[in-house]
């Protein structure tokens, strides 16, 4: 069957997810073209991507980077239009020329363009979990009212998507029990400190924290995996994506990272999605759904893997996981406040300004200091996000 060409915008194309997305696109020139690429800085890498994929537009963080990029692209004889700033990100995410948007900016900076893509009715490939954590009801409402399609890229949520009946995804008002869904089993590798002596956690270095045993990822999400705040953010993400309450989302530690998550049904069946830990699998799945395309990832060799193990998470070792459940329970802007405090704490840790153990303490203090407010519009979300950042900074 002849495919209609899909034009894709990649928000955050120089990041770990952005690069994996371009790898999948390059394998299918008959199906996909790049409409726009965006990056905050790393201009040379973005320029090399532009040479290879020839987008119509490239967006960078500021005027200086734009000038630099413009110069390289003209030297290469490229016609790619260069823009900069937050408004340009929203413009390429919602442009009529683009069909599909990979939302792969890290952190709160991705919220406005992700929401713009959802409001414009695009196929939104969501990697930027922080956007959904901050504004769950707003983003889900935007998707429902514009007729956009939201596809999870996070490996766990993509796995859950694959283990849930297709009819469930088509409904706006979803009730898990109507489909026999008992609970979601969200797997977690446990990160680099799963078995480290708990008394030494206050002394771990940045290099140790970002050395994830199974996944190669950006620095922020790598630290989130070490604290397990990443899993906490994913519990909230699962709640919004699949309409399942916190009480029916269970985290299971699975150090091999082969089972990417599971769905448990009332008849005793548990469906799982397995694969190598390589983000090109969920990216290819989400891009081609409901079809399947090659992603460059080899299938797993179960005999070689030999053992799959599971254990319960230790909330004393990983207090961030509990904080996320608390935020989801509190509702309103509590998840946005928690996310903002986490972003500030992780950056302070990466900069060597605070120790590893201070990350969870700082988030807890900010959450205790700021009451949850309503999430009615994007402006109020950003207001509460900024307030939480200010309070977090005042505690450092
Ligand atoms: P990364 O740090 O490797 O890349 C981030 C990208 O965002 C870069 O292109 C960067 O230029 C851009 N960016 C950063 N700050 C920006 C700003 N203020 N404005 C505009 N652009 C900005 O991160 P990553 O690992 O690719 O993760 C991206 C998102 O995907 C995160 O939300 C992460 O939680 C999520 N995610 C990542 C993985 C993974 O395997 N890496 C898996 C699941 C989910
Ligand atoms: Mg994940």
From TrEMBL:
<dbReference type="GO" id="GO:0030604">
    <property type="term" value="F:1-deoxy-D-xylulose-5-phosphate reductoisomerase activity"/>
</dbReference>
<dbReference type="Pfam" id="PF02670">
    <property type="entry name" value="DXP_reductoisom"/>
</dbReference>
<dbReference type="GO" id="GO:0051484">
    <property type="term" value="P:isopentenyl diphosphate biosynthetic process, methylerythritol 4-phosphate pathway involved in terpenoid biosynthetic process"/>
</dbReference>
<keyword id="KW-0464">Manganese</keyword>
<feature type="binding site">
    <location>
        <position position="16"/>
    </location>
    <ligand>
        <name>NADPH</name>
    </ligand>
</feature>
<keyword id="KW-0413">Isomerase</keyword>
<dbReference type="Pfam" id="PF13288">
    <property type="entry name" value="DXPR_C"/>
</dbReference>
<comment type="function">
    <text>Catalyzes the NADPH-dependent rearrangement and reduction of 1-deoxy-D-xylulose-5-phosphate (DXP) to 2-C-methyl-D-erythritol 4-phosphate (MEP).</text>
</comment>
<comment type="pathway">
    <text>Isoprenoid biosynthesis; isopentenyl diphosphate biosynthesis via DXP pathway; isopentenyl diphosphate from 1-deoxy-D-xylulose 5-phosphate: step 1/6.</text>
</comment>
<dbReference type="GO" id="GO:0070402">
    <property type="term" value="F:NADPH binding"/>
</dbReference>
<dbReference type="GO" id="GO:0016853">
    <property type="term" value="F:isomerase activity"/>
</dbReference>
<feature type="domain" description="1-deoxy-D-xylulose 5-phosphate reductoisomerase N-terminal">
    <location>
        <begin position="8"/>
        <end position="136"/>
    </location>
</feature>
<keyword id="KW-0460">Magnesium</keyword>
<feature type="binding site">
    <location>
        <position position="155"/>
    </location>
    <ligand>
        <name>1-deoxy-D-xylulose 5-phosphate</name>
    </ligand>
</feature>
<dbReference type="Pfam" id="PF08436">
    <property type="entry name" value="DXP_redisom_C"/>
</dbReference>
<feature type="binding site">
    <location>
        <position position="156"/>
    </location>
    <ligand>
        <name>Mn(2+)</name>
    </ligand>
</feature>
<dbReference type="InterPro" id="IPR003821">
    <property type="entry name" value="DXP_reductoisomerase"/>
</dbReference>
<keyword id="KW-0560">Oxidoreductase</keyword>
<feature type="binding site">
    <location>
        <position position="234"/>
    </location>
    <ligand>
        <name>Mn(2+)</name>
    </ligand>
</feature>
<feature type="binding site">
    <location>
        <position position="225"/>
    </location>
    <ligand>
        <name>1-deoxy-D-xylulose 5-phosphate</name>
    </ligand>
</feature>
<feature type="binding site">
    <location>
        <position position="218"/>
    </location>
    <ligand>
        <name>NADPH</name>
    </ligand>
</feature>
<keyword id="KW-0479">Metal-binding</keyword>
<feature type="binding site">
    <location>
        <position position="156"/>
    </location>
    <ligand>
        <name>1-deoxy-D-xylulose 5-phosphate</name>
    </ligand>
</feature>
<feature type="binding site">
    <location>
        <position position="230"/>
    </location>
    <ligand>
        <name>1-deoxy-D-xylulose 5-phosphate</name>
    </ligand>
</feature>
<feature type="binding site">
    <location>
        <position position="154"/>
    </location>
    <ligand>
        <name>Mn(2+)</name>
    </ligand>
</feature>
<feature type="domain" description="1-deoxy-D-xylulose 5-phosphate reductoisomerase C-terminal">
    <location>
        <begin position="150"/>
        <end position="242"/>
    </location>
</feature>
<feature type="binding site">
    <location>
        <position position="231"/>
    </location>
    <ligand>
        <name>1-deoxy-D-xylulose 5-phosphate</name>
    </ligand>
</feature>
<comment type="similarity">
    <text>Belongs to the DXR family.</text>
</comment>
<feature type="binding site">
    <location>
        <position position="129"/>
    </location>
    <ligand>
        <name>1-deoxy-D-xylulose 5-phosphate</name>
    </ligand>
</feature>
<feature type="domain" description="DXP reductoisomerase C-terminal">
    <location>
        <begin position="274"/>
        <end position="390"/>
    </location>
</feature>
<feature type="binding site">
    <location>
        <position position="128"/>
    </location>
    <ligand>
        <name>NADPH</name>
    </ligand>
</feature>
<feature type="binding site">
    <location>
        <position position="212"/>
    </location>
    <ligand>
        <name>1-deoxy-D-xylulose 5-phosphate</name>
    </ligand>
</feature>
<feature type="binding site">
    <location>
        <position position="14"/>
    </location>
    <ligand>
        <name>NADPH</name>
    </ligand>
</feature>
<dbReference type="InterPro" id="IPR036291">
    <property type="entry name" value="NAD(P)-bd_dom_sf"/>
</dbReference>
<feature type="binding site">
    <location>
        <position position="17"/>
    </location>
    <ligand>
        <name>NADPH</name>
    </ligand>
</feature>
<feature type="binding site">
    <location>
        <position position="189"/>
    </location>
    <ligand>
        <name>1-deoxy-D-xylulose 5-phosphate</name>
    </ligand>
</feature>
<feature type="binding site">
    <location>
        <position position="15"/>
    </location>
    <ligand>
        <name>NADPH</name>
    </ligand>
</feature>
<feature type="binding site">
    <location>
        <position position="130"/>
    </location>
    <ligand>
        <name>NADPH</name>
    </ligand>
</feature>
<dbReference type="InterPro" id="IPR013512">
    <property type="entry name" value="DXP_reductoisomerase_N"/>
</dbReference>
<dbReference type="GO" id="GO:0030145">
    <property type="term" value="F:manganese ion binding"/>
</dbReference>
<protein>
    <recommendedName>
        <fullName>1-deoxy-D-xylulose 5-phosphate reductoisomerase</fullName>
        <ecNumber>1.1.1.267</ecNumber>
    </recommendedName>
</protein>
<dbReference type="InterPro" id="IPR013644">
    <property type="entry name" value="DXP_reductoisomerase_C"/>
</dbReference>
């Amino acid at each position: 069957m002849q495919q209609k060409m899909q034009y894709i915008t990649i928000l955050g194309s120089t990041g770990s997810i952005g690069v994996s997305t371009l790898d999948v696109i390059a394998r299918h020139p008959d199906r996909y073209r790049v409409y726009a690429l965006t990056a905050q800085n790393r201009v040379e890498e973005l320029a090399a991507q532009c040479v290879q994929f020839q987008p119509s537009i490239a967006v960078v963080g500021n005027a200086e980077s734009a000038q630099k990029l413009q110069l390289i692209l003209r030297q290469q004889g490229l016609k790619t239009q260069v823009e900069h700033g937050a408004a340009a990100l929203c413009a390429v995410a919602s442009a009529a020329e683009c069909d599909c948007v990979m939302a792969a900016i890290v952190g709160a900076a991705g919220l406005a363009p992700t929401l713009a893509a959802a409001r414009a009715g695009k196929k939104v490939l969501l990697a930027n979990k922080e956007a959904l954590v901050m504004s769950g009801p707003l983003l889900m409402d935007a998707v429902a009212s514009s007729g956009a399609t939201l596809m999870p890229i996070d490996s766990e949520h993509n796995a859950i998507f694959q283990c849930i009946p297709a009819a469930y995804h088509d409904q706006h008002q979803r009730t898990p029990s109507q489909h026999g869904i008992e609970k979601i089993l969200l797997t977690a590798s446990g990160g680099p400190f799963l078995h480290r002596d708990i008394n030494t956690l206050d002394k771990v270095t940045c290099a140790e924290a970002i050395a994830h045993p199974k996944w190669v990822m950006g620095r922020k999400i790598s630290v989130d995996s070490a604290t397990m705040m990443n899993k906490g953010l994913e519990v909230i993400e699962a709640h919004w994506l699949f309409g399942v309450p916190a009480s029916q989302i269970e985290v299971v530690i699975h150090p091999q990272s082969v089972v990417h998550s599971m769905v448990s049904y009332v008849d005793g069946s548990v469906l799982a999605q397995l694969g190598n830990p390589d983000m090109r699998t969920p990216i290819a799945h989400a891009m081609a759904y409901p079809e399947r395309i090659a992603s460059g990832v080899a299938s797993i060799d179960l005999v070689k893997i030999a053992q799959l193990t599971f254990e319960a998470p230790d909330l004393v070792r990983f207090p961030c996981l509990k904080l996320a459940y608390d935020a989801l329970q509190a509702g309103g802007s509590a998840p946005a406040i928690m996310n903002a405090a986490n972003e500030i704490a992780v950056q302070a840790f990466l900069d060597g300004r605070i120790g590893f153990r201070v990350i969870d303490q700082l988030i807890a203090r900010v959450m205790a200091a700021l009451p949850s407010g309503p999430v009615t519009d994007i402006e109020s979300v950003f207001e509460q996000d900024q307030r939480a950042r200010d309070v977090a900074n005042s505690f450092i």
